[in-house]
Each structure stands twice: as C-alpha cells, then as structure tokens.
Amino acid sequence: MSSPEIESCRFWRKSIAVEDGLIGLYPAWNAVVALNTAAAAVWDSLRETGNRDETVADYAIRVPDRAAMAQEDVDACVSLWRQAGLLRLPPSPEGPRRGGLPGVSGYETCALNICIDVLGQSVEISVQDPVLGAAMEDLLADFPRSAVSPGVRLAALGPSGGWRLCQDGFFHRAAADLVELRGVLVGEIIRMAAGTVPWRAVVHGAVLSKGGKTVLLTGQSGSGKSTLSAEMLARGWKLIAEDCAAFDAEMRVAPMPFAFSFKAGSWSVLAPAFPSVGAAQTHSIGQRRVRYQGVPAKLRATRSCRPDLLVDVRFREDLPEGVCDPVKLCAIESLQLFLNEESFVDFEADVDDRFLNFAIGTPAWRLRYGSSDAAIRFLGECLGDAE
Fold first, then answer.
1. CATH of segment(s) 201-382
2. pLDDT digit string (tens) for 3-24?
3. Which of 1, 39, 77, 378 is the most exposed place for a label (fewest CB within 10 A)?
4. Cα–chain-centroid distance for residue 47?
C-alpha cells in the first residue's frame, strides 16, 4: 500500500550509525530522528520501497525476532514519524517565491541606498521602509563600501505592493512582514557571499578564535551569545561571525562583517567594553529592541576557520558568578544544535557526509553559566588555555 505520505520516505537518507546509536535524516526538512535497530529497519525499508505493505514483509525478514509483530511495529513507526512531520513531501523549490507581487517600478523612494563589497562582489542595497533602512545601515556598517558598479542590486520594498525583495529590478522573494523581510535580505547577502559554490550550512551562532583555536557558540535568541562574544573580544578573541555562521565544504566558517546585535537588557552590561553602545540607535523590528555595534578591524578574523569546539550557551541568573554547569553532549545532541528554525544545513549537498561528520565528531557541550568570566574560563580549558 502506497500513498503520497509514504512516497515521501523515498526522500529520506539511509540510516546512519553514530557512536552507539542510529539516526535517520530527512534532508528536505532538515530533520533528524534517533532510531533503534528495529526502527532503522523500518526506516530503511520505507525509504527503499515507498510502500507500507512491502515494508511489513521486508521488516519480518530483517528482524525475524519481531516477525509476528511486523505490522504493529511498522504502524507504530509510521504513526510516530507522521506526528514528527517526517511524512511530508519535500517543499516546492519555489518556496517563498510567491508570485503576483511587483518588481521595482523606479518610482520608489528608498530610505537607504548603499553599495557594499560582499567578499569581492559589489552589491547595491536599497530599502524602502525607514525603520528597516536605519537598522540595515547600522547592521552593514562594517562592510566595505564599493565604488565599483554593482553586479547585483537588491531592493527591499514595502509595505506598498507587499513586503518583498527584488533582485536586479525583478520580484525575487515575498515576506509576510517587516521582520521576515529583514531575514530574507540578510539571508540573500549571506548567500551571495558564497560565490559560485553554495554554503554547506548557515547556522545561528557566533564564531570566535584565539591562539589558533576556534569555538562556535549556539543557543536560542536571548541566551546571551552576543554578550558572551563581546566579553570574549575584550579578552583578545577575534570575531569570525556573529549571529550567522556560514560553513563552506571544508567546514570552515567565513568571516562576515555584520555588526554585533545587542538586545535590550545587555546594554548596561556591555557599556564598559563598548562605551558607544549606550548612545547607539535603538531599532525596534517586531518584538525585538536591538542596538548594533560595529567591531574594529583589529578584533575581526581575516580568514576562514573550522570550529574545534561547539558550545550551546545560556546565561543563568540563578547561578553564582563564578560557577558554570557544563554537560557533554552525545553525537545526536550535538547534531541537533544545527537543526532549528534559524539554521539551515544542505544535507542534500552533503553527499560526502562532511557536515554530518563535523557535527557529530567535534567536541560539544551544553554550558549554563553565572558570569562571562566562568564561561570564558571553561572555553579556555576545553581549547587548551585559549582563554
């Protein structure tokens, strides 16, 4: 018995052994699932056959000890994976490129119009909305300005005619609101920085290096990544990426000169290290109130680096200042650091499993800490006194 949802299983990757367990990957949805031996047999059979009845018969052969329960086991797996969203067909390649919205008419008045150098490519950025325009001007402050005729023109337009991004005068991508439009514009700049070879992954996180060692800090928005990163810069670390880390095929993160994004609540804490943050303009896009802070060139890394350590961080007010609470992550937990709504891993392009092996093979920790001093001390210990 086949159906559209069972046919979606053909887009899964064959189960993969990691440490002492197994995982299944659905690249189109950036999804990962832990599997035991029996579930892996169901997973692989559904992937190969795209047929539920054939899977039941195949499972009975693969797992003879469970032959009498084959139908029940397959049904249980299918039900569980349906609930997890793993039985959806891949999204349309068009994705957010919803039609029906206009391109650039030539009559728009833009609040921002600058031409920046994006890793050697001249890109013109135009923004119609004054709120977004002011925010993007501060966010892109450290990008070199380009005097060369732009090779690409990006225009973020709206609300008149709908929130949308246009490229070279033509409609490119739609956005539901101003918050999404900001993300679409930033994402397009990052995509262009890759040149002709797409990034293997773009991950929500900060990357810093010191003494030849590199760390990737992940965590949910508001976890304290930017504040900790700023404190690390004050201790001699170099910034490679802030907020978005773009990985190439060698698992190196490329330097991206976006400004620091400091959320309300961290400004007074960061004032000693960054005095100008107190006078910076406050930008309110959606629910977030942020101030952007440029980073001096001497505090930025100039070459791509491969992270030696992955750390999921969160500041905890209830922990004493000198205390941190580290927990070593297993391979599957490490991989899950990269699977969230703010990150993208091109598992379909990762046919050689380079990113997968990097994610599960790099030492990874979950770190809860009561002060930046405690967190930085822990990072230094993990990296051999890079502190």
1. 3.40.50
2. 778 989 999 999 988 877 899 9
3. 1
4. 27
